[in-house]
Amino acid sequence: MIEVVKILFVEPSYIVREGLKTVLSRMGIAFRAEEAEEVRDNFQRLLEKHKPQIVFANPDLLAKSWHGNRSAAIFEGVVLIGLMSKESGEADSAHFDFLINTRHPRQEITQALMNILSKNGFISGETDSENISDRETDVLRLVALGFTNNEISDRLFISVHTVMTHRKNITRKLGIKTVSGLTVYAILNKIIEAGEVKGSSL
Amino acid sequence: MLINQDMKMADVIHLNHHLLHVINRFGIQLGYGEKTVKQLCAEHDVPLSFFLEIVNTFHDPGYFPVENLLQFKASRLIAYLHETHRYYLDFRIPEIANYIQRLRDDDGFGPEVKLLIQSFFSQYTHELTQHINREEQRVYPYVLSLEKYLESGGGDKELIGSLKQYSIHEYEEEHDDVESKLFDLKNIIIKYIPSPRDSRVLNLILHELFELENDLNNHAHIEDLILVPIVEKMEQEFLSGSNNPKIL
Predict the structure, then answer these.
(1) Model ipTM?
(2) CATH 3.50.50.60 fits A134-196, yes or no
(3) If you average pLDDT over residues A113-137, what whole number do you get?
(4) Residue A13 contacts B where some CB pair is shorter than 8 Å
C-alpha cells in the first residue's frame, strides 16, 4: 500500500514550499502537506496541531521560537529537516536531523531526500507488496472475530505489545485500518466465516 | 491559479468543476451568464471575502487562508458547514446507496460480497450521521451561543458552560475515525473484491467515494483552519470578559 506521509513545511518562501512539494511528488512520495509561513507562538504547538512525521523547516524561522528542547516527547518519531540556503552558518542547525541545501542542483537534492526518506522507512527498497505472514493471519483472524488485544494476547501466548506490532503490520500491508474493515477482508479471504463474528451485524 | 473577484463565474467552473457544489452551498445556482464572482456574491448577499476564502481553500488544498480570517462571523461559517452536512446526508450518501443497490442486480458477484459491501457502507453511513449530529447538536449551538453572548451580552452564560462539554481541540480529533472507515471501504473495493466480470458499477461507486472523501477532507480542513481559530478567539474573549464587571 502507499503510505501517505504527513509533512509540515515551515518556510516563508512560497516558491521553496511549492518547489519541495513538486520534488517530492516527482519522487513518487504520497504526502499530505501542511504549511506555515511563520511560527506565530511556538514551534511545539505547531507540531501538536499537525502531528507531522516529517518537518521541513527554515532554521531562521525556528531560531526565535525554539523554546523546547529536541528531546521533548512531541519530537519523538518526527524527522526534522533543515532547509539551508547557504553552505553553513545558519542558526541552530544542530537541532536538525538532516540538512538540505535548497540551492543544490536537482540530482543532489533528489539523492539527499531519497537517502533521508529511505533511512527513515518512508521509502522501502523492495516493493511493499508483501503478503501477511501466518502469525499475522492468526492475529487478524481474532481481531476480525472481535477479540480485544488482551484476549488475543492470552490466546496466542504473546505479549500485548507483540499483538499491537502485528496489528500495525497488518494495517500497513493491507491498507485497512478499522476492525470492521478487517472483518470484511477476513470474510472475503475465507479466513473466517460471516456467521462466526461475535456481536456483529455482519 | 486562485479564484478572484473579477473572474466570470462561468470561467471559475471551467477552471475547476468540482467547485459547483461548493458554490451551490452559498445559494448561487447555475445560469451565471457573463456575471463575475463579485456581481453574483452581491446579488446573493454573500460576503465576497468569505466566498473567496472558502472557494480557494477547496480549489487549492495548499491554500492557507490568513487574510481577515478571524473577522468572519462564526454564524456565517456554520451556515456553510451546515449546508455541506445537508449535502452529504441528503444527496451524496443516498447517491452512493443507489449505486450499491444497483450491485444487487449485478450477477458478477456472489451474494455474500454484495451483502458485505452493503453492510459496511451502512455502518459507515451510520457513523458519519452520528458524527454530523454531534456537530449539529453540540458543537454548533455552543459556538452560536458563544457568538451571541459576545455580541449582545445576551444569551445564557450557564448554557454556554453546559454546552461546552469538551474543548474545541478534542473535536478536531474526532474526524479521524470516520475517515478511516471510508479509507477502508475504498481499499476493500480496489483490492479485495473477488474480480467481477464487469466493474462498471463498482467504478462509479469508487468515483463517488473519492469525491466524498475529497469534500469531507475540505470540510475538516475548513473547520480546523477557520472555525477552530475563530472559536478559540471567542473563548478567550469570553473568559477574559467573565472577570470583567462591565460586561457582566
Answers:
(1) 0.77
(2) no
(3) 79
(4) no
